[in-house]
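Lab channel / #folding
Pinned by the channel admin:
"Please post every new chain as: sequence first, then the structure tokens as a reply. Keep commentary short and put observations after the output so the thread stays searchable."

First post following the new format, from NK:
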Amino acid sequence: MAAMYAVYHGSEGLYSIAEKVHQSTCIVAEGARRAGHHIDEGAFFDTLKITIRNEQAYQDALINAEIRHINIRKYDEPHTIGISLDETVTSEDLDDLLFVLGAPSVTNLWQQLKPKDGGILRTEFERTSEFLTHPTFKNYRSEHQLTRYIRYLEKKDVSLIHSMIPLGSCTMKLNATSELTPISKPEFANLHPFAPPYQTQGYFQLIKELHDDLCEVTGYDAVSFQPNSGAQGEFAGLLAIRAYQHDVGQGHRNICLVPVSAHGTNPASAQMAGLVVVAIKTLPNGEIDMNDVREKCEKYQEKLSCIMITYPSTYGVFEPSVRELCETIHNYGGQVYLDGANMNAMVGLCKPGKFWS
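Reply from TO:
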């Protein structure tokens, strides 16, 4: 996303956006000063730390922000707020912010403002060197040009539309356009991550309903939405296992068993979590070799932390011995991380929580 944003706008577009953001911030800063407030010392670009002149003015600012539907940051320091701007800010938004600060409108005074008192222009932080000089950042200025360029890059790689590829079913998921459309709606897309809880009740309802649905589908007691990708989910799950073992006085356990049929990122995640990876063999039919599992559990029983399995496996196999495998790992003091890459194949057929993963 960031790369294509740069390709579309180029250095001229990014400079224009940055200039608008900084000018808008300078206008708010000037308005705050005229209202008798103090701007935190130091250069700024798009964010201001403002100390309101007294308690009454501070309370007025909070009330006015509510009236104009603006969320401002409240610092721990007395009478201190934070305001950040971006390229979506309009002149109407600036007038609203100045109203919040109890300042007169100065949206028409940019030409009279000088780059001083914290502005980044003409300081050591102002960039003077060229950037994005490659022709790629100058050739695609319309939507159809950019779309064709992205398609051109896409065709450089082999995918399922060209041939079969040696990857598991986790690569075959499809999010239809009709499913993706709602996330571009302002009600979904524009909620600030630090918005106060009373403004996010709809999101809480969606998360609660999805949580309950996933618990029903998986058979687990609870689900975390914190990881935002499969690899992050693996890492988070392993960290949770390690934290639990450390908490119960078994922090020395550092062996992670990974079948060769597991998802490809499993061993990488295990190493990132500080675990030592030990491979588990598979049988000619693709199933996990339970004899090898038992041998490795016996060999590393004092240090066994966990096993990472993908179910069904990357080979597309539903392991009939999965419950026995999980029970064996638990009997030797380990935990089971089940990779959800192929969860679609399990829905309605089995629940990973029911076979003790």
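NK: The longest helix spans residues 2-34.
TO: also worth noting, DSSP finds twelve helices and eight strands in the chain.
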